[in-house]
Amino acid sequence: FRWTAFAVLVVMLEIPLGGLRWSAIVDALAARDEQVTRTVMIGVTAIGMFFAQVLPSVAGDGVRAWLLARLGGDWRNAVISVVLDRAIGAGLLVALGFAILLLLPTGLIALGGYRDLVLAVYGGLLLAGALGLLLAPKIARLLARWRYSRWLAKLAVDARRVLLGARGPVILALGCLIHALTIVVVWSVGRAQGLVLPVSDAAVLFTVMIGVALVPISISGWGLRELAVIALLGNHGIAPERALLFSVCFGLVLTLGSLPGAFAWLLYSFGPSWRSAERGG
Question: CB within 8 A of 197, min separation 6: which ones?
Fold first, then answer.
């Protein structure tokens, strides 16, 4: 129970870090309203994290964009900031996963014979992302020619501004720290289950478990994550029922760690301020 409680606390610690990362993105876009403090954005992040655990992740992102716009922000900038926040998290996951599978010495790294395929896919995604950032101005000019792709042009320009601007290092550092803490959560849940996993094995499990959760056909990865963990650990002599219990406990820890968002949703009023209402009038 002590290891489980520690894992839940680490998940809760990720909430303010995620809020600060999102806040830095909004600042880079120059889209923050005066009343939207970092504390408020941490609260909104907590709410989004809770909804992402009980509903498809797109619901959590939608709630975040809606609350930011309700607090006086521009709808377009609110949506773009959430999209960029999600994309940066996914991009860092791919980058860390590529480094983990390429460099760490661990028996799990073979991924049941699919390691080379995963490395090729991750490497291709990283190359495409890097080229997209470098060519963003040209891509934006091309997309701006058509009415229905102008929002993609703005997204490309904003992504370059966020990642290559003054706040880019802070945003990337916070994203890496959040992923590192998730590896700690995986390791702690393993200890709670009696699985003394090396940090390298926990890092590989993190790559698989969180990567599967990005597939938009399940709620917070439930089901797909269990299948992936059973297949991965089963190749190393761990019984399917024990691997299933490990994956389910990891999901429950994430859910328990997101409960502050439920309390924030119930107790805090995110209505627009009088100042925002006067500006709207």
Answer: 186, 187, 190, 191, 205
In Å, how far from its chain's centre is CA 255? 15
Number of Cβ within 10 Å of residue 8's Cβ equals 21
Is residue 279 classed exposed, middle or buried when 0-12, 13-18 and 19+ CB atoms within 10 A define those classes? exposed
Helix H or strand E segment including 149: none
Between helix 199-213 and helix 75-103 the angle, nearest 10°, is 140
pLDDT tens digits, 185-223: 999 998 888 887 788 888 888 888 887 777 766 677 777
The verdict on pTM exceeding 0.70 is: yes
Q: Which two tokens stand for residue 50?
A: 């809770």
Both tokens assigned to 92: 């860092």
Report residue 29: phi and psi, to 5°: -85, -5
Per the rule left: phi > 0, alpha: psi between -120 and 50, beta: everything else, 112 is: left
State whether residue 44 is helix, strand or coil. Answer: helix
